[in-house]
Each structure stands twice: as C-alpha cells, then as structure tokens.
Amino acid sequence: MTVVQQLYDLLAVDVEIDKHKQSIASIDETLADNRLLLGTQRAVEETQATLREQETVRKDLELIVESYQDKGKQLETKLYGGTVRNPRELRDMQVELNLLQEHQKQQEESLLLSLEGVEDTERRLGNLQSALEEIQTARQKQQEQLLGEKTNLEKDSGVLNEKRQGLSSLVSPEHLRLYDSLRSIRQGQAVAKVDRGMCQGCRISLPTKIVQSARTSEKPVQCPSCSRILYAG
Ligand SMILES: [Zn+2]
Predict the structure, then answer these.
(1) Spacing, Cα 222 to ligand 1 middle (Å)
(2) What separation in Å is there between the alpha carbon of 60 and the centre of ligand 1?
(3) What separation in Å is there between the alpha carbon of 197 and the centre of ligand 1?
(4) Which listed residue, 34, 193, 224, 230, has the most CB atoms within 10 A of its CB?
(5) Using 50, 70 and 90 to split pLDDT, how confident is the model at 218?
(6) What digits encode the pLDDT tens for the residues 79-106?
(7) What is the dihedral of CA 56, 61, 63, 67, to 10 degrees?
(8) Cβ contact 201:222 at 8 Å
(9) How far apart are the CA of 108 and the centre of ligand 1, in A?
(10) Which residues belong to CATH 1.10.287 in the chain?
(11) Residue 1's pLDDT is what?
(12) Separation CA 156–CA 145 (nearest Å)
C-alpha cells in the first residue's frame, strides 16, 4: 500500500471522526438549550403573581361592597322601622341611603370588572401551565433520545479513533505533518482524488506529468494549484 493510499484511508476516517464530533457538539447544544422551558416557567410565575394581586383587589372590593350592604340594611331598618318620626331626620336618612346605594353600585361594578380580570388571568394561567407540561414532557423524551444517540456516537468515535491510530502509525511523521498541515488549511480535505486528469479538490486540469507521477511516485505528489496530496489510485 502506498503512502498516499494510506493517507487517503486516514482521511476517510478523519472525516468520519469530524462528523461524529459535530454531531456530538450539536446534541450537547440542544441538550443545553432550555430557553423555551425557562421562558414558559417565567410566564407561569408572572401570571401567578398577577393573579395573586388581582385576588387581593377582588377580596378588598368584596369587603367594601359587603360593608355598604350592611350599612344600607341598618339605614333601611332605621328609616322604615318607625322609631324615627322627625320628617327632617327621615329626609336626611333617605339622602344618606341614596348616596350609599350609589357608592355601592359603583363598587359593585368595579367588583364585576375585577372578577372578569381574575377569570381571564386564570384562563391564561391554565393555558400556560398545560403548555409548560407539554414542553417538559417533550423535553424529557428528547433528552432520553439524544443521550442515547450521544452514547452511540461516542462508542463509534472510540472505534474510529482506534482505527485512526492504526492507520497513522503506518505513515512516517514527515508525511503525517504534511497531511495535518493540509488538513488545517484545506477544511480537512488534505487528499484529493485525480479524476480524468483533474484534481477533485480544486477542479483544475493537472499537467500529464503530475498525473503520471501521482500514479507512480512513492512519495506524496501535491496539486500545483491547491497543494492537496493527489490520490490517483
Ligand atoms: Zn488541486
């Protein structure tokens, strides 16, 4: 087996190793991304806080309405009870009762609006809570699936790394250095196939002399244009 063929095989393994690394990195990224979950949790908490405030206002209004009702009843008892007979006093009491009922009506309207607000918020909170549950369930499922995939990828990576070690041990340090430096400047593609006289790395037509020597030379022959090691096998 020529050194170029060995490097070509090594490249195939390295490309696989890179793909595995990328897949693992993308899984890690997805696993770490809990923005949707946190955002929904925050929305639930904010809505709960709003609901608590609205409940306080509602209770206050209920107490106010109740106290108006009590006062109104007391006044009515006095007014129609027959114990007060003075016409002026009775007239004053009637005015007071009318005023009181007017205030009570206003507070009852506020209470009604407040109840509607509470119902709205309760509905919104319910929707948010079921959305949160769905997100949690989906995330749990996704996590299990991704962790399974990751385990498999790591297992395969281990096998690939062993294979790489075996292959690279066959190549001289000098050629490995050339290969590594080409990998870093040519987006990992250190070796290019020659097809119909063309370098498949940069697509230029190679001089016949170069194609010939790529076929026969013991040493790696590089493309004059992109510097990749030419594999004419
Ligand atoms: Zn080239």
Answers:
(1) 8
(2) 82
(3) 11
(4) 230
(5) confident
(6) 998 888 899 999 999 999 999 999 999 9
(7) 160
(8) no
(9) 85
(10) 34-168
(11) 75
(12) 17
Find the 203 Cα to ligand 1 centroid distance in Å.
Answer: 6
| Ligand 1 midpoint to CA 200 (Å) | 7
Q: How far is the CA of 210 from the centre of ligand 1 (A)?
A: 11
pTM of the model: 0.76
Residues 6+ apart with CB under 8 A from 7: 171, 175, 179, 190, 191, 220, 229, 231
Q: How many CB atoms lie within 10 A of CB 137?
A: 10
Q: Return the CATH number of the domain spanning residue range 34-168.
A: 1.10.287
CB neighbours of residue 179 within 10 Å: 22
